[in-house]
Amino acid sequence: ESWLPWLSVLGAWLAFGSFAVPMKWQSVTDARVHPLVFQTYKTFWTFVSSHLVLFFIPYEFTAWGIVSGISWVPAGICAVIAVQNVGIACGQAVWQVTNIG
Questions:
Q1: Does residue 28 have a pLDDT over 80?
Q2: How deeply is 82 buried, as exposed, middle or buried, from its count of CB atoms within 10 A (0-12, 13-18, 19+)?
Q3: pTM of the model
């Protein structure tokens, strides 16, 4: 039971650190993909993969989940725009500081 939190940390470390990489691929920048398209893909796969937790923890509805979902899309669009304009390293550094502060 003590390995599950560490496995979750490892998964978050791998996934959160790499989701922005395809945004900088040459084929994607040449196609000028709209930030809302990236946010739609990211939201869909987060929704699908977050249901894997239900194998281990029972479902519990809270109003904070709705608040989080409402803030997810605008924040994600801003993250995509940041990566497109200043790059992955600077973009992630800025939005991590604003999340903490």
A1: yes
A2: buried
A3: 0.68
Q: Return left, alpha or beta for 87; rule: phi > 0 is left, psi -120 to 50 is alpha, else beta.
A: left
User: What 8-state DSSP symbol labels residue 101?
Assistant: -
Those residues whose C-beta lies under 8 Å from the C-beta of residue 92, and which sit 6 or more positions away, are 17, 20, 83
pLDDT tens readout for residues 66-93: 888 888 888 888 888 888 889 888 888 8
The CA distances from residue 71 to 2, 5, 24, 47, 93, in Å, are 31, 25, 24, 15, 19
The answer to whether residues 24 and 88 touch, using CB atoms and an 8 Å cutoff, is yes
How crowded is residue 32: how many other Cβ atoms within 10 Å of its Cβ? 7
Angle between helices 63-86 and 88-100 (to 10 degrees): 150
pLDDT value for 63: 92
